[in-house]
């Protein structure tokens, strides 16, 4: 691997104490299973958990 990409695989901590194992994130892909008000549903959380193989960070598009 090119050394310039090494920081992507290092852990990162936010000021509030939340810690990421690495800096690789998955962009939102769908909101097909969101609640009718646009909030994230349990099914959507399960979907992203399966896709991420256990990591827990998710960013979702929301209606404004």
UniProtKB/TrEMBL annotation:
InterPro entries xrefs: Aldolase_TIM, OxRdtase_FMN_N
Q: Name one Pfam family in it.
A: Oxidored_FMN
- Domain of life, per the record? Bacteria
* Residue spans crossing the bilayer: none
> Any idea where the NADH:flavin oxidoreductase/NADH oxidase N-terminal domain is?
8-54
Q: What is this protein called?
A: NADH:flavin oxidoreductase/NADH oxidase N-terminal domain-containing protein
In the record, what lineage is assigned to the organism producing the protein?
Bacteria, Bacillati, Bacillota, Bacilli, Bacillales
